[in-house]
Automatic annotation (TrEMBL):
Organism: Massilia frigida
Name of the protein in question: Molybdopterin-dependent oxidoreductase
Domain Aldehyde oxidase/xanthine dehydrogenase a/b hammerhead: 13-127
């Protein structure tokens, strides 16, 4: 099914309101003052000039803020890693560059912004450490694990000894720089204070219930005193998993001043919190002359903050993608004076699979073997680490269909063998893999006597199409026209839904929606049997079906009752059901659950300038049953674009003398633009996974990016004969001898 977004009209006409667009009477505006040192303490704050600006109400600092909790436990949101979360305006300590040190609140945004430049702060600076490469020797194993993180498995076999004696071997070090989220909507919170003191908060977040949890705990407020809403989110992909500091600051101001307050971060301040962590990796592969892998060794070192152990499963996929008897994986952290990293699209896999897939390409040249043939030679039918079967795995079909669409069989094996004019042409490919997750969720459904169905859950739509997917699932289950279904999300008072992340929302919330519709079906059937002269009086539930907005007998479709008429018979004017979806953990734990992809890329490289154009991409995806082909294709295209950005453009440069990110704006932080993107072809391989979800669906948000940067790197090597082992692959690296 290919359906246009049900929320599309609201978005393109401006009817959709985002976090900073909700009105409130007598609204005040807060502007954050950012710290100018990387580590140390605040010695003194002079706010007199700022307070003298007409319209300024208050300058809130750690010295005059309202009371907040002191224990770490109260600051831990639902996705927090181990350690001590950052506490905005808690004390005089400075932990990282750009940390918020004050909030200027005024009657107008302009007054608050101007006054924020007048706040004078004196610091006592301390020596800082922000360079990962300078401090690799003090790495440590994560000691406090984030919920959902699986550490690398124990070594299998004797990987080091086998690698040492391998007939064919390769070894490579890979580096990935920091990347920052840059969604169109900047982080913002509008706190609307009711006359009874109730706070209704419009927040840019990937979970309204996570933000409510955070606010309630930090400020000691009962949950019935706080409602958080996020009906529309202008992009996130990990940046909104955790509540960002503007939320706490806006609530502080609302409580202190007993007024409604809005706080919006600037684009520069968007670079002052979580980011994809800087990572260093070493991969060693051993093989026989026929290409059979004998050893896989993959080790990674990544940054974290001083106060939290942020973790990613960077190396785990190297123990899952290819059959091998000897595997050793390692993952350590280096604590730096930076804000804690945060999940960014395909966290861990974007870096880890990249290193593995570039290493596999390097090995293919050592073997004088086609890169695709090498992957097929080592295709894993069972999880190589523990022998579990895959719930479904159509990666072989991804290879076959993607290669056929791309024309891979025409690829010459020699490097520098294709040229057109002043450009060298190269073809590269890579595999992709991402976890297929399912979590806990609730949903409710109300069928009204007018024939309209309203389904609800506190889910989130960050632009991925949640509204539309849930309407499709409900309409399909109830046999109703799509236009008769409405899905409610983005409100903390709705039935429980997990934080939107990890490509799990359709498998999780979608299964809850299908489940509640199943309960509604049975209730409707029971009512229908009681109606006068009912054709269902002696029927079994299995004899009935829902189609065309009616309940009808399968054997006699003409014997039908409109759903609206059944509800009207009940007399209440509405029929409601609720459902709690729990993953079948006992069944799922017996399988490795994942999505897969095969990415094929063509690049053209101007050897004189080192510029790279990605002119053609074919991405073949196996992600279970596709609920909305139009939105899913859009998601994969978006992932490919992001992968091209990872490969060629995105990196946040740090001046470690200052401990500060320097290119903290969209003028200098490079992202792909229209001229950088050419033909992108998406192939969905047929797959239906009833282990992952009752829908047969997995998820497509992350898998579209995984493997793209590696395929670009491999294509650059095929074009030029130059191997670039760090991202982004900028012209200076491509030109390097």
């Amino acid at each position: 099914m290919a359906v246009s977004r049900v929320d599309g009209r609201d978005k393109v006409t401006g009817q959709a309101r985002y976090a900073a667009e909700h009105p409130a009477d007598a609204l005040l505006y807060g502007v954050v003052v950012s710290g100018t040192i990387t580590k140390g303490r605040i010695a003194a704050i002079d706010a007199r000039k700022a307070l003298a600006v007409p319209g300024v109400i208050e300058v809130i600092t750690h010295e005059n803020r309202p009371r907040i909790r002191s224990f770490d436990l109260f600051y831990k949101d639902m996705t927090a890693p181990g350690g001590s979360p950052f506490r905005p305006l808690y004390d005089d300590k400075i932990h990282s560059s750009g940390q918020p040190v004050a909030l200027v609140v005024a009657a107008t945004f302009e007054a608050a912004r101007y006054a924020s430049s007048l706040v004078e702060i004196a610091y006592e600076a301390e020596a800082h450490e922000t360079c990962l490469l300078d401090h690799l020797e003090r790495s440590h194993k994560p000691s406090r694990l984030k919920a959902g993180y699986t550490p690398p498995p124990e070594p299998k076999g004797f990987a080091d000894e086998v690698w040492d004696s391998a007939l064919v071997k390769m070894e490579g070090d890979y580096y990935s720089g920091v990347e920052h989220h840059n969604p169109l909507e900047m982080f913002a919170s509008t706190v609307v204070r009711g006359v009874d003191g109730h706070l209704t908060i419009y927040d840019k977040t990937q979970s309204s219930q996570n933000s409510r949890w955070y606010v309630s705990h930090v400020f000691g407020l009962s949950k019935d005193k706080v409602t958080v809403r996020n009906p529309y989110v202008g992009g996130a992909f990990g940046s909104g998993l955790r509540p960002q500091y503007q939320l706490a600051l806006a609530v502080m101001a609302a409580l202190k001043l007993e007024r409604s307050v809005r706080v919006v971060l600037t684009r520069q301040q968007m670079f002052s919190f979580g980011h994809r962590p800087e990572t260093v990796q070493r991969v060693r592969l051993g093989a026989r002359p026929d290409g059979t892998l004998t050893a896989i060794i993959h080790e990674a070192l990544a940054e974290t903050s001083r106060n939290e152990d942020y973790v990613e499963a960077v190396v785990n996929w190297s123990g899952q993608l290819y059959a091998c008897e000897h595997i050793r994986l390692g993952y350590k952290l280096v604590a730096l004076d930076r804000f804690s990293p945060i999940d960014m699209r395909a966290p861990g896999a974007a870096h880890g699979v990249h290193a593995l897939e570039v290493a596999m390409d390097e090995l293919s040249y050592e073997l004088t073997m086609d890169p695709l043939a090498l992957r097929l030679r080592n295709y894993a039918d069972l999880d190589p680490t523990d022998g579990l079967p895959y719930s479904t795995k159509e990666l072989r079909a991804c290879y076959e269909q993607g290669a056929a669409r791309f024309g891979w069989h025409q690829r010459p094996g020699e490097v520098r063998s294709m040229r057109e004019g002043h450009e060298l042409i190269g073809w590269g490919m890579a595999s992709g893999m991402w976890d297929a997750m399912q979590m806990f969720a609730r949903a409710s459904a109300v069928l009204h006597a007018d024939g309209n169905l309203v389904v609800s859950s506190a889910a989130t739509d960050i632009g991925t199409g949640t509204y539309t997917a849930m309407c499709i699932i409900a309409a399909d289950a109830m046999g109703m026209p799509l236009e008769r279904v409405r899905f409610q999300l983005g409100d903390s008072t709705l039935p429980v839904a997990p934080v939107e992340g990890g490509s799990s929302h359709v498998a999780t919330v979608g299964s809850a929606v299908q489940g509640v519709c199943g309960k509604l079906q049975k209730s409707l059937f029971k009512l229908a049997r009681k109606m006068p002269d009912s054709p269902f009086a002696k029927a079994r539930f299995e004899d009935a079906e829902f189609a065309g907005g009616a309940l009808r007998l399968r054997a006699h479709p003409g014997h039908a009752l409109p759903l609206a008429a059944i509800v009207a018979f009940d007399g209440a004017g509405r029929l409601e059901e609720k459902y709690m979806m729990l993953p079948n953990v006992l069944k799922q734990k017996n399988y490795l659950r994942a999505t897969h992809s095969a990415v094929f890329v063509e690049v053209r490289v101007d050897e004189a300038f080192g510029t790279v154009r990605v002119t053609r991409v074919v991405s073949a995806i196996a992600a279970g049953r596709i609920i909305n082909a139009k939105a899913a294709r859009s998601q994969i295209i978006g992932g490919v674009v992001w992968g091209i950005g990872q490969a060629l453009h995105e990196e946040t440069q740090s001046d470690d003398r200052l401990g500060r990110f320097m290119n903290h704006n969209l003028g200098e932080y490079q992202v792909p633009v229209n001229a950088d993107i050419h033909d992108i072809d998406v192939v969905f391989v047929q797959e239906d996974d009833r282990i992952v979800s009752r829908l047969g669906a997995k998820g497509v948000g992350e898998i579209g990016q995984v493997g793209v940067a590696a395929a670009v790197c491999n294509a650059i090597y095929h074009a030029t004969g130059r191997r670039v082992r760090s991202t982004p692959m900028t012209p200076d690296k491509v030109m390097a001898p």
